[in-house]
Design goal:
Radius of gyration: 15 Å
CATH superfamily: Uracil-DNA glycosylase-like domain
Number of helices: 7
Largest sheet: 4 strands, parallel
Shape: globular
CATH topology: Uracil-DNA Glycosylase, subunit E
Number of domains: 1
Oligomer: single chain
Helix content: 25-40%
Order of helices and strands: EEHHHEEEHEHHEH
CATH class: Alpha Beta
Distance between the termini: 44 Å
Length: 167
């Protein structure tokens, strides 16, 4: 299975003063850490889902990804600032240190917080909810590990939640 490695989250959150939705993952995967940006695994469907929901072209570069999010009032970050983990296995996370999510919440008028998957939701509820005083809505993970959800099904479910707040 591999050995535990201590990981310090290396990405800044993506947000600006117009951000209305905050989507939280758990921690960047090995592939994302290699690429230096969120949802970097080629089979992760996050960028395709957001592109379809917003009617935006599928972004290819980090800058295009940031612009798509900001143009649609979407902020992203992760719940964990650092932890011990085996590879990209969220289930192996231990010794988690939460990110300072209040940094985003204090800078924006965030209407809703969403978790990209149940691990992000669980970690938020454990480490952050008492600090933020805000509930989190769990969406099905866009990770390739969540093979039970097709791209169309993910897009439909995510769209049900996000579209009313994007308008």
């Amino acid at each position: 299975m591999g050995e535990y490695k201590h990981i310090v989250h290396g990405f800044e959150p993506v947000y600006d003063g117009r951000s209305r939705l905050l989507i939280l993952g758990s921690l960047p995967s090995v592939k994302s850490r290699e690429q230096g940006f969120y949802y970097g695994h080629p089979r992760n469907r996050f960028w395709a889902v957001i592109s379809k929901i917003t009617g935006s072209p599928l972004p290819e570069t980090t800058e295009q990804k940031k612009q798509m999010l900001l143009q649609n009032s979407i902020a992203i970050w992760d719940v964990i600032a650092e932890c011990d983990i085996i590879g990209s296995a969220d289930a192996s996370i231990k010794n988690a240190v939460p990110a300072d999510i209040m940094r985003v919440l204090n800078a924006c008028d965030i209407a809703a917080i969403y978790a990209n998957g149940s691990t992000a939701a669980r970690l938020y509820q454990k480490h952050m909810q008492s600090i933020t005083g805000r509930e989190i809505m769990t969406l099905p993970s866009t990770s390739p590990a969540n093979a039970a959800w097709s791209l169309d099904r993910l897009t439909e479910r995510w769209g049900e939640e996000l579209l009313p707040l994007l308008g």
